[in-house]
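Notebook, student rotation project (T.W.).
Task set for the rotation: take a protein with a known small-molecule partner, predict the structure of the complex, and write up what can be learned from the model alone. Partner molecule chosen: zinc ion. Sequence and SMILES entered below by T.W., checked by me.
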Amino acid sequence: MICDVCKTHTATVYLTQIVDGNMKKINLCESCSKEKGVADPTGFALADLLLGLGENQQVEQVTQTEHCPVCGFTQADFKKTGRLGCSTCYNTFSDALGSLIKAMHKGTQHTGKIPARLYRDLARTDRLNELRKHLEDAVSKEDYEKAANLRDEIRQLEGGRSQPI
Amino acid sequence: MKIDPILTRAGDWLSGGSRHPIVISSRVRLARNLAKLPFPGWAKKSERVRILEEIKPEVDLLPAIKDGFSEQLNELTATEKQVLVERHLISREHAAKGMGSAVVINPPQTISIMINEEDHLRMQAITCGLDLEKTFQMIDEIDTALEAQLDFAFDEELGYLTACPTNVGTGMRASAMVHLPGLVLGEQINQVVNSVNKIGLAVRGLYGEGTEAMGNLFQVSNQTTLGEKEDQIIERLQKVIETLIQRETQARESLLATKRTTLMDQIGRAYGILTHAYSISSKEALNLISILRLGIDLGFFPEEGRAIINQLLMDTQPAHLQNLSQQKLAAEERDHLRADIVRERLKKFPRPPNTKSPGQ
Ligand SMILES: [Zn+2]
Ligand SMILES: [Zn+2]
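Predicted structure of the complex:
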């Protein structure tokens, strides 16, 4: 789960709040939760301000040892074995793994082989982006016939979307 | 195919093909996992069995594996597994596995696929001499065929996802087994090993470390797997191996030029001990066989001797002896049997020259 504030780090602090009978959830990473003072129970109002949730009524903090949602693995398990539990663990523990992987390898971006299925998906995404740009161009130049053709082509490509891997 | 043909016949990487005086074999291994399923080390036994049942039929259907050997590890004896380790067909870690793990090997023993080792799939190709590119292609084809049937865990940023973060990205480990007696005898090996390790490649003794490496056999491999394409990694490794070949060749020339008598003494003694010993340890045998091999490379023995030497490298290993005798051997009995086999095989091996000029 991604942090609701910075949108980059993995969330490790989960807040649940009941507002007018509706449950609202906010997920924060460690640094954002510290920065916003969420770790301090008296600072909960900050979370409200942050999200504009209004008066806090019932808040529970779930700063849990994070478990991988797929395989139940924890960071403590990783420290013990040096191996992960499943492929989803890379997502679950991306914060902690990021610097480790950076230190281990030549780079941080895979540039090698891509499974053929995914390769086709990526190629289609590229093509879609290209077509959308052309479409914008055509619209701004008021070339509506061309725009209509492009729109058809885009719709066709979008319809052929396969399942993400 | 039963395991007998595997056990009685050496793989092509050892017995056939191109003969390189320094590079014995090239190997490329790929690690792959099924998406969203626990890695073998974290999976419960029942999960491992289910994963095996999903993967193994697909592997067995590969045309490249046709008429090969395919078996679950709980069906193999400890000795049989150990023979496969000595053949470099499975890892030591894999040999320790049982229920829920399997190995599949093609008839020429150039491709082996471990199921549920540290990763769901560890696939390797191993060939004779120096040809990393071809070796990579062999295993790349297997990977491409399998990915059409199996959903491999892959991330756009991190590439192939593996149980250990040291393997993410390409999941590829390319390596060469090199024979460096010249650098060891010339006492340059530690310096060479250190300089290669500094540039992000690993050199280690195949059995033991540094100057302690048994049989003067070393393995050079890439250490990193993320941030470079497969062919870039292989090219970098290839360049380093070429440098190693150059350094080893120079070391041999320099030994011939400056320490010819010492060198011939070593070769003569190696021959003497191997042909007359009645008890010999695995380590001593490996070290002396290495010196005979150097003798062939330098022209002190005819080329025909090489096949005998290569075969002995394998057959004098503990599990190979155990398998040959078909009964439980104590370490001492193994040393006796080893010496018997070496003497017998070397009957057909030409004597070393008894003058100091090569190729008599
Ligand atoms: Zn954050
Ligand atoms: Zn997991």
